Structures
1.
Amino acid sequence: NFQADKEKCIGCGLCTKVCPGQLLYLDEDRKAATVEVDTLGWNGCWRCEHCLAVCPKGAIRILGKKPEDSLPPAEPSEAAPMLDAVLANRHTCRRYLDKNVPKEILYDMISRLGNIPNGGNHMLLEYTVIDDKEQVKRFRKLVYDRMEELAAQGVYPAEFGEKVYRDMKRWTSLVRPDMLFCGAPHLVIPHGPRGRGECELDLVVACTQLDLQCAARGLGSSIISFPMGVLATMPEIRALLQIPDHHYAPLIVGIGYPEIRYRRGSQRKVDPTKIHTLTFE
């Protein structure tokens, strides 16, 4: 569904240089055109919208998207310090208010993950969401009850074992009242098919990008792996998430309004000794 407005197109050729599928060219009138495309993905249109985004005159429409509906680029002088502040002030949240985040905010953040980098732009990730705090409480109780039954039988998550399990139980008395889901009222689980694209890497990117979106909106978030290890020991309860067995899903993002507000950003930086600069003759 590629359309180039012949009146607006100035024949600069930028769209032909950014198309990863090399589908675009300038026709005999030096106007943007595309080869015949019968598939989406690696061997066809990547759905990246680079052509729409790069056109200086807004001459290109693709996949039903119009250039006038795009967000403008942020000014670096404003965006850089803002992003620095968001990074410094994001903290893993382990205590949440017993309050729902409006669903329109939650799903808007998830929808924006369509912009994240992903391997080959295959866009294979899916998102399982528990969007109501009462539903999360019910799910949490199911998991806790079964976890305690298994622990009494000496069955623990493979990646953690009894010692870590006991440590986390001890932490519930102070730092982390909910050792599984950090008390988050909403849970988002990215997942994708094993062996296709780069889903193992893509979902890590998705979690971190969702985490930053939460920080930018004043929400708390937690990227947690322990619950998925616990759920691996109870397949009958994991099945309630309706995540296909062939999908990779090692992480959960807990989201909600933080109970405790931080007053300033952290000052952590990468140790210079851990930054390795290469030079070549």
Note: Residues 133-152 form the longest helix (20 residues).
2.
Amino acid sequence: MTNELLFVLTSVVDLSLILIAFRLGKSWLFALLAINLILVSIFGAKLTEIFGFITNAGNVFYAAVFLATHLLIEHYGKKEGYRTIGIGLLSAILFITMSQLTLLFSTSSESASANDAMQVLFKGTPRIALASMIAYFFAQIVNINLYNFLKNMTGGKLLWFRDNLSNIVAQFLDSCIFFSIAFYGILSNDILFQSIFAGYLIKLIVGLLGTPFLYLSYRVKTMSPPVEVALK
């Protein structure tokens, strides 16, 4: 299976799970958002080639976070959108701290190979996670405020417009901050700029794929009560 097909498959699966989480209730959506941010920290260091450009494998997960945020603002208000910042940062801090502390444990000979693999895998995690946190913080502030402003300006109409314009602006900011912090000094300038461009392009494509799911959220919302409501 080509990287391009894997990219489409990963995007559709992740966006579908975001919509399912929305259907199950707000707390499920927050949980999936946190999981996607942890996946960014884990796989953000994996560089791959998609559509002829070098980019990192965590872009799909990050774009899914923006869909989750837009769902929260759209259906629950700006305040719930802001909660994603605190939840996202806390999730990243927990992952960085616990993963690095766990690596300090002494290892028995029976699991030496697994420990070596973990050391290699998570060696660059703090830098990737830090880059992700800083980019996430500033990009989400822009994303939330711009989305909410456009929603009010259009009187709740033109859903596709506010979804994609906020993605275009906020994802550009995120890509510039994240790749500059995560890979400056590691990649050559040419590859770094290519990674910023490709990462931005990939997230815009996933954002476009996410727009139909945002429209679908109004359909699933009118179905039977969410699980977290029905169980009360």
Note: The chain has a mean pLDDT of 86.
3.
Amino acid sequence: MKKDFDILLNKNFQDNIHIEYGIIKGNNKIVFIKVGQNGTIYGYKNKYIKIAISLNKKYGYTIICSSNSFDNNITLDNDMSIIKEYCKNNNIKSYEVYYIGHSKGGTIGAQYGYKYSCIKRMLLINAPLMINYHKTKDGLSKFNQEQIIMVYGDLDPSYKYTELLNGINNKKFKYFIIKGQDHHFSKNMIEFKKLPEKYLIK
């Protein structure tokens, strides 16, 4: 059984931004995973590589996982350039992206995902709501592709702010609360790994 990514990339972008990418080759549907701040492409207890392997094996999707350094720029321009480059090098002429973001990765998706028409669906997990919520609200309101779903554990610090999300005027947007889960889903990592199939792919 596969235990690692097919391709590992270490990229240095402008302003000394360093991002690591892990890629599992698949079809023209790309699941892009943006991890939390300072997170690695593998994640706690290898949760991201396990999700990547599972989705690739079951659906044939291409999986691209991105680290998220503290100094990372806020937009997704660098990440989208990596996806475009990968597709060009692998003769994938048309593609669509399913975005998964956890914590800071979720915030980045919420605030900037609407700018990229290739991103058709987003699953944003425990994205902090306490900082620059006006940007999050604006981004969620402007997303006009297939769907955007936010998930919060009721033990996450942002849970008490989730009522703000009722003010998002966008029929493509929904949010769900999961009882007994904290920011990292440390109570039940298995439940975390099931989130993409439950909320993104269904």
Note: The longest helix spans residues 47-59.
4.
Amino acid sequence: MRAITKKEIQIALDDVGISSGQIIMVHSDLTRIGWVANANSRVDILEFYFKSIMDQIGPEGTVVVLTCTESFARDGVAFHHEESPSEQGVLSEFIRTKDNSVRSMHPLFSVAAHGVKSELICGTGICNTGFGYGSPFHKLYENDAKILCIGVDLLSMTFIHHVEQMYGVPYGYTKEWDNQVYSSGKISNERFFAFVRYLDAGIDYNFSKMQNLLLKRGVAKTSALGLGAVWAVSAKDVFDIGIEQLKKDPFFFLNQTPKTQPWKK
């Protein structure tokens, strides 16, 4: 199997509009790309991608990754702000643990950032809500960030849930957890909330309609890389077009209107 090179990933990132000074939120599944030239270990592979991204966005750029800990909500596992590993893939955890990376303080939907604007995105105080106004996702919108998907397509964008909350889709609600949350080794007394979907409503997401629309409008781009591809789109375009479509149909991100509608009760 032929391994990808630094030049090839540079070309792919150029093709999708990733450039110097940008803030980019990265989602990835590196196994879908294939092997990396001259890599002898998993650390070599992760360093290759990290360095390739940082070289592309330069010293004024910032990379952001989702460091979501679903076990907090699903299994009641305590969240330790500085120690709980990301449950969103190896590149996410690799960037979270890099020196000078900053992680936002939310026990379910945290993100980590590395670069000059990491404090702006993640470190300016506690945000008690996972999405919505004041959240890191809102800051991505405000600062004209790009969303970059490596080895996965735009269906992986967590940013879509920010759009849902800001619009106020009927099939989701705000939930609070009372699981233990630790910061600097001490239990936090903060209250944390997040937008979640009704689990008993038969909600079936279908983001492919949104992806196809972004491609049709020419605001999303994709480029081949190794065995897979990279994708990129502006967070502002995702938000603006998403809101536009939800105004027409509040169930636009779903396969169909749920037959069970607990929000009516």
Note: The chain has a mean pLDDT of 93.
